[in-house]
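S.,

Sequence below, as promised.
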Amino acid sequence: MAIPRLSLPNDASVTGMSVVKQDNVYDTYPIHCHEFDELFFIFRGRAIHNINGQHQVIEKGSLVFIRPDDTHCYSPLNNYDFGMYTLGFPPDITRCALDYSGLEMNNAVFPPQVTVYGADYTWLENRMERLWLIRSPQRLQLFRAIFPAILEMLFGRDNAKQSEAALIPPWLARLEESMRLRENYIAGLDRLLELCPYSQEYLNRMFRLYLKTTPTEYINARRMTYATELLLGGEHSITEICFASGFNNLSHFYTVFHRMYDCTPKEFVRRMTAEQMR
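The prediction came back faster than expected:
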């Protein structure tokens, strides 16, 4: 199947570039490449970035430069929220900014990325929000003014090793995809270990390193997402939902639910119902 190559949207003809703010991984575009350069910046949550046939976890503070021939899309990571600014602009703007800054674009297989913290994060989030709010040619003027500093974050450091180190090993990416199936996360840790080609100790280390969680936390988050779907459906008792979600103990179900949602299942339903009625 041919991978779509996206063009800059129509509003770029007015502002000279595009800026999109997205609050959900499900609102992002399926696998694609571009006719333009792209920057994206994660301001909330986590997701999986499928990039050039590999997988990375991106999280709050991730700043990634996507080149026109890079193919990518996003997948949810458990029930984490996801918020992202995406900037699209002509490649000649990148060339001019690199020349001005004295920096060079690397030719690594995977695009440059860095995670920004502290003052850098605050500065970048503020500029991204301002760019998103501007709906005039002044957007491009502001972008040209801050772009050299962004490139310094990306290309002024040795980020090729960091990008490759962040790649999820293929076996772990396949395992995570398998555990998205309901029958697998309901079966729980035993099924995960059955599907994993390595020891439990090694699996625990890899989950923490690449997915930023433990196998048990990962499975419980999957189960809880399913449990909330059943709760909001209103067709089952809490005890039925507990066992249907893979928990064998009602007290443990309540403990995990409260830890994740800071309320009881009944309170969760009341909150969601009240929000829908607003």
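The chain has 13 helices and ten strands.

Coffee later?
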